[in-house]
Design brief:
Helix content is 0%, strand content 29%. It is mainly beta.
Length: 58
């Protein structure tokens, strides 16, 4: 009989955030979270037509 065990590491941990994304138009938006006081400006990456000067989730 083969004993197969799964050894967990950091990649197995799931972290969920309750967020709201408001698109400003075009390729830019503002990301909001209830437990964070500031906003985060986001945009599409240059490879998808964005300017590349805002935060991107890649």
């Amino acid at each position: 009989m083969t004993d197969i065990r799964h050894i967990s590491d950091k990649r197995d941990k799931k972290v969920l955030f309750d967020i709201q994304l408001n698109w400003l138009g075009g390729q830019r938006g503002i990301l909001l979270a209830n437990d964070v006081g500031d906003t985060l400006r986001v945009a599409l990456p240059q490879s998808f037509g964005g300017t590349g000067d805002e935060w991107r989730p890649e």
